[in-house]
Amino acid sequence: MPKETFEEMREKMLASAKQGIKSAYSSEEYALIQAMNAYLETTKSMNLMYERLTEWYGIYFPEIRMTSPKSLASLAVIMTGKDADQARIADAIGDEGKAKSVYEKAMSTIGREMTDNERKALIRFAEMTNDTISALEELEVYIKYAATKLMPNATYLTDEKIAAELLSKAGSLERLATMPASTVQLLGAEKALFKHIKFGSKPPKYGVLFKFPAIGSAGREMRGRIARAYATKLCTALKADYFTKKFIADQLKKTLDETVERIRASPPKPKPQAGQQERRFDRRRPQGHEGRQMGHGRQGRDRQRPRRRFN
Amino acid sequence: MPKETFEEMREKMLASAKQGIKSAYSSEEYALIQAMNAYLETTKSMNLMYERLTEWYGIYFPEIRMTSPKSLASLAVIMTGKDADQARIADAIGDEGKAKSVYEKAMSTIGREMTDNERKALIRFAEMTNDTISALEELEVYIKYAATKLMPNATYLTDEKIAAELLSKAGSLERLATMPASTVQLLGAEKALFKHIKFGSKPPKYGVLFKFPAIGSAGREMRGRIARAYATKLCTALKADYFTKKFIADQLKKTLDETVERIRASPPKPKPQAGQQERRFDRRRPQGHEGRQMGHGRQGRDRQRPRRRFN
Description:
Two copies of one chain form a homodimer. The first copy, chain A, has helices spanning about 5-25, 30-60, 70-80, 85-95, 95-105, 115-150, 150-155, 160-170, 175, 180-185, 190-200, 215, 220-245, 250-265, 275-285, 295-305.
């Protein structure tokens, strides 16, 4: 076999490294993670825009209250003075009954009259808000499609956005599928978790999962237990999604529903008494962070070793 | 004169209250404040979108670096695979020379290949980013127009966006025009100011004014003094804008330029010695907030009253 020259070997190495990078991104999960993060960030931006639009539009029509960002933005685009007619308003907010009251309020408004330049600026801002809302809707379509394709089991147990957010927090499907259930349960609650570990505050019971109605809107006493049940089954579902790629979620869902039913029927555990609580808290408090506890360490030392005044 | 009935009086009162509200918003400054706040918030949102787009697009074309949000978004809209041609790329980023290198990089990319659904989602997000950028540009046009109209003097001394931001921080032109120069100088530096008052950190030297190139890019040693000179003249300019509505900014600008020239020519004052600094710091520290100083008070007391071990 002829020996390769250094140049040839270098070329091969480079090609193989490139191939490695290419295959690392071959799964669609990375696109889903990006889309989900874009969705979450854009939702925040959109809420800011909605608040600003409410305030800005409120100079001209302080009487008008709109709870939906989309209706408000559409209304601001078409009605910027007293020239709007009822049909166009109904068209913009999609509610005939409300259009009449909006129209009447607009006709007798005590707000400021717009100049042409103000109108242009306000309409442009409202249009941008509208465009952001419609982009969010389209991103959601993609997220639903991709999450169902990549994680059919996890999506079946919860919903597409919860599954996609768990994935984006974990970083990759492999990491998510090999996480323990307790970690999946607390994904998204990192801040509360580290506050608990460092300062001994109450431990969090759920992270992203709280957004799922079956967990978030359950009674306070059982939310934590329901979240644990969901996390356990989600873990199994995610392993099926990543490893076997078989659909087992209908059976999982059945068992999960039974467990949740049992939790709902069972009485809440009695709360631990004050003394016990204190002991658990002390045991969990780490030893190495006294500097960050705002004089806590000093107080503790003082309490244990009382000052001897008279020798 | 016939006595008015209660009903008639009530009607009159209501009408007068409505008129009062209407006249309170009769100045265009409120629209300018809203537009400026919208501009500032949307700039933040746009930066988030740009960062996210860089990361998302980077999965497909990791080799491509774009420093302008607009070029990146335009590129992401037209080039989502290997089908793009050089002319369209040049059209999108507006740079023939760079288009060639971008095209070559795209042809030999090691990034992921897009599926149709990913393409749709990414293009939609890029379009939204593009729309946000163009809305910002149009908001800026309005801000420049309205700021020049309402505050010709202040705008002449600094620029339209600085004047508008000062106005939005103050809340109304009347309040801004009647503020002392030291307050105008620190508008926008509230956080640093209160940190100084509460915890004795270094006092801030400028707020919004730092964004003005003549102040922000001056030498460290003279920035504070230049900011003070600007704030003083701005105060006079704002009073002219609000009260007399005469244009006096050209004279103000001449005096201001002379002052700034003098500051630039003069050597910086010698720094106070360590001992003096300590004294000033102590005098300024307030007395009533020891609880917030993280054990500072206790340490101080311990130092003053040493523990007597042997009686």
